[in-house]
Amino acid sequence: MNSLPHEKADAPRDVLTGLPDVASLRQRLQGWLAQAVGDDRDAVRVHALLVGLRRFDTINLSYGAAAGDGALAEVATRIGHFAADELDGPWLLARSGGGNFLLVADEACSRERWQLFAEQLADAIARPIVMPAGVLRLSPRVALLRGLAEEGVESIIDRLGQALATAKLQQGRRIAWADREVTRPGRTAAELESDLLRAIDGEEIEIVFQPQFSLPEDRLTGAEALARWNHPRLGRIGAGTLFAIAERADHVVPLSRHIAMLALGLARRWPGDLRLSLNVTPSDLAAASYADDLGAILRASQFPPERLTLEVTEQVLLHDVKLAARTLGTLSEQGIRIALDDFGAGFCNFRYLKLLPLHYLKLDRSMIDGITADPRDLAVLRAIIAMAGALDLKVIAEGVESEAQRDLIAREGCAFYQGFLRAQPMAAEEFAGLAAKG
Q1: Phi first, then psi: what are they for 223, rounded to 5°?
Q2: Are residues 76 and 217 in the same domain?
Q3: Is residue 299 part of a domain?
Q4: Does residue 121 sit in the same domain as residue 208?
Q5: Which residue segment(s) compose the domain that 52 sits in?
Q6: Which phi and psi (to 5°) does residue 429 adopt?
Q7: Which of 154, 177, 200 represents a domain boundary (last residue)?
């Protein structure tokens, strides 16, 4: 089992972002490097990248220090979410000063896959940030490398720093490999889009399941379906990058339908009343036929609608919340339950709580990270649970990584949780075995 992506709760943390400090990251990286040499000095497992925000000082000058601090906190959240979705092995993120963030991972992947990860991460960071002071647009630069045989921590950090400094000076260049590495030819955007069309027709799209448990009894209640693309050349590609490629190819809707068919077909064999959660994309809800299409997939799979939960995020709702409300209302009338996902990650537009036929609030992992150490984080959690109770909504906690977090959310009234504490995303066969144990 992989280790957790974050350091222990009592490790020193950056005051602004709550991330572990660089000393903690260096210690973790040193351990991975030593282990890599002990296992196989020719195998490349340790990967690292350094994110820098170009001309970040202009944000503080134009919008004020508070806006700059808010932007850094948002960037930290975006990087953390992206890494959690895309990386299968253990990883750690730290803020290394100013607008720089250092990410290290004990992840076996190809050079092309690591570059693709960096490119999609830069896209995620570059999305506009809506703040009271205005709409902020950041310009990220990413330096990346693969750890060399018997390389030390200082060498890795030095190489990244030099590569990032060079990238910041060059207009239009977002990604830079560190010195002593040569970027091998990968797949062009057009080739990846073509690959995806073939992957949907073939057997390259895999569904893994993130188990969910009830509180306080820790009973398995179901799982969230997550897509992975087993690319024959680049290796495993996570859901975030997969859907980014699909969006460029204008193929999100067929991909989403394909994932739903695969997941529902696998979940049909689950025993008892275990629930399946599916993520909904903006393209799904923008399609007038979505409710009918999903109903047809449900009938074909013979999966009971009352055991299905659809997870929607604020990003999904931004396009047309009234259309989304009508579509989700139609689905809710069929017995499908609706969860507002990543609650607390954005600006928590409470209008959604009034307009949508919701059954669950699913807390973003950032709402759980500090609850055992920071009284303010705990106060926010209690307020959200109280509000959910008043609206007759059940609360699902995401990203639970310690027994202390689990015990606390149980005492405070969360109904369900998921996270690395009990299980990481697992293959369908592994989840079926877990489900059979009851």
Answers
A1: -160, 155
A2: no
A3: yes
A4: no
A5: 22-177
A6: -65, -40
A7: 177
Give the chain's domain count: 2
Within a domain: residue 184?
no
Bridge partners, residue 145, by sequence: 48
Q: Which pLDDT score is estimated for 385?
A: 96
Shared domain for 167 and 212, answered yes or no, is no
Q: Do 200 and 277 fall within a single domain?
A: yes
Strands 46-53, 100-106: pairing kind: antiparallel
Residue pair 357/329 in contact by the 8 Å Cβ criterion = yes
Tokens representing 244 are 């980014």
Best mean pLDDT range from 132-141, 282-291, 294-303, 350-359: 294-303
Measured CA distances, 87 to 21, 81, 83, 196 (Å): 21, 10, 6, 19
Q: Does residue 385 share a domain with residue 237?
A: yes
What count of residues does the chain have? 438
CA angle 333, 417, 350 (to 5 degrees): 55
pTM here?
A: 0.71
Q: How is residue 172 written in tokens?
A: 């239009």
| Least reliable range by pLDDT among 32-36, 103-107, 124-128, 300-304 | 32-36
Dihedral (CA of 238, 87, 421, 415) sign: negative
Strands (E), 304-369: 308-312, 337-343, 360-363
